[in-house]
């Protein structure tokens, strides 16, 4: 660009927090860098970071991963970012801001200075190890102090206080929360909800003290501090974190004479303009309609309005909804609108309390029972989205509003997509309305994936996934689009339907299936999918003549093709337990055939670089040494990872290795829509990482806890606790049913994690089917699994016995010379592709 | 990605039919690899055998049983085409590369995902139980 600086106005933004950063993003989006030269001041040394997820800093996230943009983002857009430089004065007469490094003139100025944590005026609040929880530097200080501490107290039981308590707990401190009000989160929940919240939080080992006003803090006897309360009761602790609310950082505005609120905050109008029209304010420093908005959502809305004001746009800030859903210390808390019902005269309420499951829900409705005015949720936020739709769109409630908060075996009732107006917000993370979804369909999106890609809906927290799907399906249907779920052009069926056909008709070959129910020759989509279905049902050797043309190369040659056309070989090492003799045998094979060897993540050994014609010889030696095929090449049971368990470990409570061997030997050779990974941990320390597996088993004092549908890899998903304290037999029974139900109902190449996310009715439905046998198919699933188990045979042992099958392992049918294209080089004492 | 036929004009004298292997070496509805001698030197060929018959899946109007196509995958630069899955797309017999899954038409070697890429193909036929190729 050839525009000289003098052509541009100078825009200064004070503050580089979440809202300040969002403002810059919005300005860039509006092309404001054409009109303004922008300078941003941040007093912290870090680039704007995600304060909402601050507690993850202790869980291993660093400043860089919390950062809201790449380090060169500002420079890339020609914006000057001056970090570690605090503004000390606004000189309105000269249109300048002053820092300790100089004076900078402005044409327009935005205050995004945010807030600071309020520390109650308690004598002793300035003692060492009395800290606050707001910035990364605060967190560094807390972490440093925690190293010499065993106990910690958070003063303040609101949203941020509970966040801070979670952080202290994460630092292995014995943690207590001290709250002045009679309950936790007094802003969001009522006394019933607060009581439930207390129970849940106390069950996590966090002590909760309410109605406690701290009088003074002094030297402790057993600990560093002693807190003395109003009734002279005391509490000793090593570390205190104050989290008793926020106050706007408005001193720059105050000193420069801008109009202020009575209790602080810079007064702004709908355009986010202050009493000086050259100066704007956004976020927690700004006072709109006598309110400070202490959530990031409203701050972002102010940033958008301010960006529009600065670029002659029309968007204004007209207040913001403070509805919120949170997970604090693992406990769901949701609050919508007038959750207490104290702002709406004549309001009526519905309440539901389940003290066994520890759930509480409340509806506040208009006096005629037709409109939702507010709602409160503790323990289960799955009701939030539907209630939010009723609230924010003013929809008429069903005849019996209580049905919206009553538990239902089919999960929370979902609002019909057609009942929503165009303005209904579907995705609140990315502010996508039903109208936006419709528009993307009208301009060519023909499926859920395309709508997500275009609108970003459901790509934030994902909480709206079910709602979005129902809106997309409904809209497509109403436009007469038939959603084609055919697996490919050869079969007008889904994988699930093909599975049903194969089972019902007992079809055992691909050629019979395509003759009867398809057309053409098949392709690389339907052939492996059908091969997998046939294997799941009948478990015949995949190298049989009728099955071999269906397999991907990896299954055909029972090895994993690598990028240069060679294969890698992974023998099964059940549970990761291996004898020294077997280790030696693996070493000898690796050496003899010049294979690169590497330990896998599944506690096995991968031997790379085998040429096609070497595979049978390699496997003959492995089988002679007692190995079986590991199915690393198949969409099949891969590994059961285990820790050493109670036989060796001083913490182990069950014999995890024996269980892992049992599980692996039971399910080895099972083919499924995608690969299956398992793990068994011998105690709650979870060294086998079972919570990242399709099926995870964790030992308890009383048996085993079963987790399902976890995943590592590209899209990690924490497995969900499915059943607790199972005996060996029930554990296997549930896994049998679970796996067969997955095989029966999943799409091709759909891992259990994605399958679970798409399963209507969610985890509760899955539990009903597997545990309570709600479909009456449990016996059938178990029997089908037992058939597969009974028919297991090592595929390599089978192939080695059959000269016809071995013929397939020739690199060339008319010549014995190796492939001259495969060239290797040596690195760190091993061979690798050149 | 030079896989096009050599520019040299082929004459009858340069090319000839040669025997490759027997029917027994082939795998129905799948591929095997073989070495051939061409005018430009040795080459690796992938042979695909799609038998027709009353009890086999088939394509309407599709008679050819045997195809010979370059074994070299220009995308991965590995010799692997014979190990791909064969099938048909829009009525045309194809093989999918086992590495990055591009589809090549068996008839003329054209890549369906990038028509500027074409594998060599050779005429091939059965003589009794023997497989003959013209290269």
TrEMBL record, chain A:
Xref: CDD domains: NirB_Fer2_BFD-like_2
Domain Nitrite/Sulfite reductase ferredoxin-like, first and last residues per copy: 562-623
This protein's pathway: Nitrogen metabolism; nitrate reduction (assimilation)
Biological process per Gene Ontology, one example term: nitrate assimilation
InterPro entries documented for this protein: BFD-like_2Fe2S-bd_dom (IPR007419), BFD-like_2Fe2S-bd_dom_sf (IPR041854), FAD/NAD-bd_sf (IPR036188), FAD/NAD-binding_dom (IPR023753), FAD/NAD-linked_Rdtase_dimer_sf (IPR016156), NasD-like (IPR052034), NiRdtase/SiRdtase_haem-b_fer (IPR005117), Nit/Sulf_reduc_fer-like_dom_sf (IPR036136)
Transmembrane segments: none
Domain NADH-rubredoxin oxidoreductase C-terminal: 323-387
Protein residues bound to [4Fe-4S] cluster: 643, 649, 683, 687
Pfam families for the chain: Fer2_BFD, NIR_SIR, NIR_SIR_ferr, Pyr_redox_2, Rubredoxin_C
Family: Belongs to the nitrite and sulfite reductase 4Fe-4S domain family.
Protein name: Nitrite reductase
Organism, scientific name: Litchfieldella anticariensis (strain DSM 16096 / CECT 5854 / CIP 108499 / LMG 22089 / FP35)
Lineage: Bacteria, Pseudomonadati, Pseudomonadota, Gammaproteobacteria, Oceanospirillales
From TrEMBL, chain B:
Keyword Translocase: no
Rieske-like [2Fe-2S] domain segment(s): 16-134
PANTHER family membership: NITRITE REDUCTASE (NADH) SMALL SUBUNIT, PTHR40562
Keyword Methyltransferase among record annotations: no
GO MF entries: 2 iron, 2 sulfur cluster binding; nitrite reductase [NAD(P)H] activity
Protein name in the entry: Nitrite reductase
InterPro entries linked: NirD, Rieske-like_NirD, Rieske_2Fe-2S_sf
Top-level taxon of the source organism: Bacteria
Key words of the record: Nitrate assimilation, Oxidoreductase
GO biological processes: nitrate assimilation
